[in-house]
Design brief:
This protein is α/β, with parallel strands linked by helices. The chain has one domain: 2-enoyl-CoA Hydratase, Chain A, domain 1, CATH 3.90.226.10. The chain is 53% helix and 14% strand. The longest helix is centred in the first third of the chain and has 20 residues, at 81-100.
């Protein structure tokens, strides 16, 4: 597939920097199957391109991404553990390919960066955020599981529990920066510009030294048990998804019958009234 054949992402190279832009702006760049497949192909293309030394991931429109496409997930109507294992493991591999990428990856976020999209941004080596960005992991609010539990490895466990157990989806970029989830905050609209500047800084360094240093850092976390913990989290996520809780059944039924906006409105009402 050539770059011009993509329908949900824009992939291009500007000098030594490869860019992948999530491009479903009307759906707030929700991560559906097509977007995930095309993003993976674009990433593979940049990895294989000898001219690309760093890769920037960003989003078109009003947000980086609202997370995995909940409408598509509800319509898939997975029931069994086997069905959910395929879906969850596929989503996990999609996120972790940025962590495992041999070339440095930089996420440039703005607007909302939620749920699976936040995990995707955190899987990149460096994250730059617009000052008006909001992050969050709201999965527990609608009975879903977290695909890649990176948060406890990046911030203090008590703070990770606060994020994941409350499902707060309005965490300001400033707080995320103070906690170490974001490397830099920039004025409104400058997130891609700053990410590009950092990408060029990295590109001027020895590519072999950069690649091996990234691998050494990741290995130190794996030695500490990160990869095993993440895979255990995947198993937990599969169990959560296969459990048909009342909240999840209602949420998914509203998505199918009345649309995603109605389901989110119901979810937010339940949360406010709890």
């Amino acid at each position: 597939m050539s770059d011009q054949d993509y329908t949900t992402v824009i992939s291009d190279r500007r000098g030594p920097v490869g860019f992948i832009t999530l491009n479903r702006p009307k759906a707030l760049n929700a991560l559906n199957g097509t977007l995930m497949s095309e993003t993976s192909l674009a990433l593979k293309g940049h990895v294989q391109d000898p001219e690309v030394r760093t890769i920037v991931l960003c989003g078109n429109g009003a947000a980086f991404s609202s997370g995995f496409d909940l409408k598509e997930a509800a319509e898939a109507d997975n029931k069994t553990t086997i069905q959910w294992r395929g879906a969850v493991e596929g989503a996990f591999e999609f996120i972790m390919q940025f962590w495992d990428c041999p070339k440095p990856t930089i996420s440039a976020i703005h607007g909302f960066c939620l749920a699976g999209a936040l995990e995707l941004a955190l899987a990149c080596d460096i994250t730059v955020a617009d000052e008006e960005a909001y992050i969050g992991e709201p999965e527990v609010r609608f009975g879903a599981g977290v695909v890649a539990l990176l948060l406890p490895w990046l911030i203090a466990p008590k703070v990770a529990k606060e994020f994941l157990l409350t499902g707060d989806d309005r965490v300001p970029a400033r707080r995320a920066y103070e906690l170490g989830l974001i490397n830099q905050i920039v004025p409104n609209g400058r997130h891609i510009e700053r990410a590009t500047e950092i990408a060029h800084q990295i590109a001027r360094c020895s590519p072999d030294a950069v690649r091996m240093t990234k691998r050494a850092i990741n290995r130190s976390l794996d030695i500490g048990g990160m990869r095993s913990a993440l895979l255990s989290g995947v198993d937990t996520g599969i169990f959560i998804e296969a459990t048909e809780s009342e909240e999840k059944l209602t949420f998914n039924r509203l998505i199918v019958d009345q649309g995603l906006k109605a389901a989110i409105a119901w979810r937010d009402t339940q949360y406010r009234n709890s």
